[in-house]
Amino acid sequence: MLELVKNSLHEKVTDAYGSPPLPKNCVFYGVVERHSQSPTVLVAIERDKCIRPYNHFGEIIEVGYPKLVFLYAIKGNKVCGSYVAAVTDEIIKSESPVYFFPYGNVGLTHSICMGNYFHPEVKELSDVTYFPEPFYLIEHTHPNNAKNQVIKELLEQTKGKPFNDELLIFNCTFKDFINKTH
Asked: Among 24, 25, 64, 166, which is most buried by a count of CB atoms within 10 Å?
């Protein structure tokens, strides 16, 4: 027994920790274990500004989108929460400003209403790369956004052109956005 203790003083025992393969454009990866028997994995994916179709109550309109960050909370192999926020910084840092998503189906907490859609099982964390796509494709059925602006009016302002970041409404920092979602 004394020999084991003596040897342990001279041999370093270390554990190596690493993330699994992360999704493309992943800007944040974290694990939350508090108050739970199974940890929640948080993954934030960045999407560039773009002009895409927006389905507003069945009417398809080409509109500009701001740069977005999608955050997914995953427990086991299921998405248990999805969130989206607009950002303007080229490189996202902890203190980067986060803005409300300007259109519909997103609440004050940035949580996404996906209607009847459920994300598929997460077999590998890199699967989450594709999870923002259905959000762009679903029918958005909220007449007002999280800040109670009329979405139809915003769609008219952004129709067929890049999104004007001056239309964004500030909410918090990126660090606070992450902390609010779990």
From this structure: 64
